[in-house]
Design a protein that fits this description.
299 residues, 2 domains, alpha/beta, two-stranded antiparallel sheet, single chain, globular, 6-stranded mixed sheet
């Protein structure tokens, strides 16, 4: 086990960005992310679980949901596994945060801005760069123009960030370098020169975790590692099955079948150890449209 928490685990991510004592870390990261275009001096953590707005609505569970001192909402998500409709999911999350600002009676729809920031431990087709910023824009003009500043999406594809420690010239680059490599670092770079990175090192040290945090972190880390192993094996197994069929469609079907079989076995394993099905599929980041089929196969 490394010296620092793995931020790709649920507990590790929230230790860095989702607890009251580490709020200065989140504020510093966001200010570097927005590059001075948005100046955040304080945030308030909000309830990350939002109930349904009406009977047939579905609730929303954010990784981190906070509000700035200017009442802007910021959603920060960490996603380990690619999802077919991840962009659509981010739009849904932002839309829900906007809809919940509505008030009864006379209202002129002057809601506060909502920002969505995604740490992605994978790449998506169509996003070719490490960082992609998206707004609601006019496309009828020669150059796209921002139509509204009420929504902003920032997608960070961590596998595409390839800078070395010496190549990181801005604090934003340094944040990403540390976040991506934290699980294997022996020390936090730049901590001697920048108090925010020194503070980050103290919060991230596994030795500094409380006993409840350590138990929760160890549990999440095991699930994260098992999930990675399951996916790796599923892909290899699926490729082999597909190769035997000898056709492209066979490869695709084999990959999907192998992934499903291994995911079912992994979930069964955790359930046998006392984990709840709903908790496991959330931690494994199983897409919502796959959950009913997995539930049928397991129960």
């Amino acid at each position: 086990m490394g010296k620092y928490v793995n931020p790709f685990t649920d507990t590790g991510f929230k230790i860095l960005f989702g607890q009251e004592p580490s709020k200065p870390l989140l504020i510093d990261f966001l200010n570097n992310l927005f590059e001075g275009k948005e100046k955040i001096t304080d945030v308030t953590f909000l309830d990350k679980e939002k109930p349904r707005l009406y009977k047939k609505d579905r609730g929303v569970i954010y990784d981190i949901l906070c509000e700035t001192d200017k009442s802007e909402k910021i959603i920060v998500e960490m996603q380990n596994r690619s999802q077919e409709h991840f962009i659509s999911r981010s739009v849904f999350y932002v839309s829900q945060a906007i809809a919940r600002q509505g008030v009864k009676g006379d209202w002129d729809f002057d809601f506060h801005a909502v920002y969505f920031v995604a740490f992605m431990n994978f790449t998506l087709d169509g996003l070719k760069e490490f960082r992609t910023d998206a707004h609601l824009c006019k496309t009828s003009t020669e150059e796209p123009e921002i139509l509204s500043d009420k929504m902003k999406f920032v997608y960070l594809q961590l596998p595409l960030f390839t800078k070395t420690e010496n190549e990181c010239k801005t604090n934003f680059d340094r944040w990403i370098f540390i976040f991506k490599n934290m699980a294997t670092l022996e020390y936090i770079p730049w901590a001697a020169k920048d108090t925010i990175f020194s503070q980050l090192g103290r919060f991230a040290q596994i030795a500094n975790l409380s006993e409840p945090q350590r138990r929760k972190y160890d549990k999440d880390l095991k699930i994260y590692r098992d999930n990675i192993n399951v996916l790796d094996y599923a892909i290899k197994s699926g490729i082999e099955k597909g190769r035997k069929e000898g056709e492209k469609i066979g490869i695709e079907k084999g990959i999907e079948k192998g992934r499903t079989e291994q995911l079912v076995e992994s979930i069964k394993k955790f359930i046998s150890k006392g984990f709840d099905f709903d908790e496991v599929v959330k931690i494994l980041e199983v897409p919502a449209d796959q959950i009913p089929e997995l539930r049928r196969l397991i129960f």
